[in-house]
Design goal:
The chain is α/β, with parallel strands linked by helices. The protein has a domain of 227 residues: 3-Layer(aba) Sandwich (Rossmann fold), CATH 3.40.50.720. 40% of the residues lie in helices and 17% in strands. The mean pLDDT is 97. The chain binds nicotinamide-adenine-dinucleotide (NAD) and uridine-diphosphate-N-acetylglucosamine (UD1).
Length: 345
């Protein structure tokens, strides 16, 4: 029997790529998304890539009646929960919006799942839950918390809520996926990351410089205690990350309780290495200046990804070059993101 998966936030960056991986693995996907940070065109493109339909419910996860309807009329087997707000800087300006969407939204989803008897959940967590004091590489057994912004705290809170919920309900099975830095795009060039306004994250910013949308990159600090003075991060290809969700779904099938997994490559790459790799992959020079450090940035962190390998059978296969080539193809072929096109159905 084909298993139906509800994907909250499925029109977003990671959600849309995960839809492709899910459909290719034989799952049927149903999406709820408010489109507050995405476009329905992403879903149309997913259908173009896979040739399979995605059932889409426009709406907010805090709409309990809509969730009840979706869970029952589709006989949902499991849920992947991406929906939420994710801009770190904005979360400090609008903490209530962030807790409302990320924490209250997750609670409404959990209540609806409980009512409908849906017992399996994969949650989008983040390396940010390790906080600012954790030693590298980050390993799942480290204590979490000590987060430095409302976004990070909201992820940490939802992890706590899920642990308590699973402890109380012996049938609940939850995978907490702690992503490191997802980059890249589907190799078709049809879907990718489409930030609204000025990108906060490194790769979308570089890609917009490459197509002439931004003048130059500001590198936030070159005086960190790293090999070249710029920060180290664990960048992983979004298609690898997407497959990680499929593995997690398979893993939770016959488990109970909550389990956390780091999804990263296990390797730290510097900002300057990223700039050079992008230039090499695209053939486009990226002008940059060195700017002051960005508040809240940590000098270096990367994953210990061995648990995902041993338990889920997952490793990040795609290398840095592929991440850059695919980022560039997406940006080059969609310089305005999804905005340039209207409905494609
Ligand atoms: P995204 O913004 O592209 O996707 C999130 C989607 O959720 C969007 O389509 C948005 O419209 C939708 N959404 C937001 N609030 C909603 C609500 N209340 N109801 C219904 N839909 C809603 O972000 P993404 O990069 O794809 O991230 C997906 C998840 O992964 C998020 O939870 C994010 O916090 C988490 N995460 C992302 C990263 C990253 O680097 N991108 C890293 C760690 C964790
Ligand atoms: C940011 C978030 C983090 C989130 C992650 C993935 C912050 C403080 N943290 O992490 O919570 O999980 O995104 O979405 O925002 N950089 C530049 N110039 C730029 C942009 C970035 O030099 O224009 C540097 C940053 O200083 C950092 C590196 O590039 O050293 C990566 O930055 P970014 O892509 O924003 O990811 P993180 O800071 O790791």
């Amino acid at each position: 029997m084909v298993r139906k998966v509800l994907v909250t936030g499925g029109a977003g960056y990671i959600g849309s790529h995960t839809l492709v991986a899910l459909q290719e693995a034989g799952f049927e996907a149903v999406v709820i998304d408010s489109l507050c940070n995405s476009s329905e065109i992403a879903l149309q493109r997913v259908q173009r890539i896979t040739g399979k339909p995605v059932r889409f419910y426009p709406g907010d996860i805090r709409d309990r009646r809509l969730l009840d309807q979706i869970l029952t009329e589709n006989k949902i087997h499991s849920v992947i929960h991406f929906a939420g707000l994710k801009a770190v800087g904005e979360s400090s300006q609008k903490p209530i919006d962030y807790y409302q969407s990320n924490v209250a939204g997750s609670l409404v989803l959990l209540e609806a799942m409980q009512e409908a008897g849906v017992k399996r959940l994969v949650f989008s967590s983040s390396a940010t839950v390790y906080g600012s004091e954790a030693p590298v590489p980050y390993v799942e057994t480290l204590q979490t918390g000590n987060t430095s912004n409302p976004y990070g705290t909201s992820k940490w809170m939802v992890e706590q809520i899920l642990q308590d919920a699973a402890a109380a309900n012996q049938e609940l099975s939850v995978a907490l996926l702690r992503y490191f830095n997802p980059v890249g795009a589907h190799p078709s060039g049809l879907i990718g990351e489409d930030p609204q306004g000025i990108p906060n994250n490194l790769l979308p910013y570089i890609a917009q410089v490459a197509v002439g949308k931004r003048k130059e990159l500001s590198i936030f600090g070159d005086d960190y205690p790293t090999s070249d003075g710029t920060c180290l991060r664990d960048y992983l290809h979004v298609m690898d990350l997407a497959i990680g969700h499929v593995r997690a779904l398979e893993w939770i099938e016959d488990k109970v309780g909550t389990e956390a997994f780091n999804l990263g490559t296990g390797r730290g790459i510097s900002v300057l290495e990223i700039v050079r790799a992008f230039e090499q992959a695209s053939g486009v020079p990226i002008p940059y200046t060195v700017a002051p450090r960005r508040a809240g940035d940590l000098p270096a962190f990367w994953a210990d990804a061995s648990k995902a390998k041993s338990e889920l059978g997952w490793v990040a296969d795609l290398g840095l070059e592929q991440m850059m080539v695919d980022t560039w193809r997406w940006q080059r072929e969609n310089p305005q993101g999804y905005n340039a096109t209207h409905s494609e159905s």
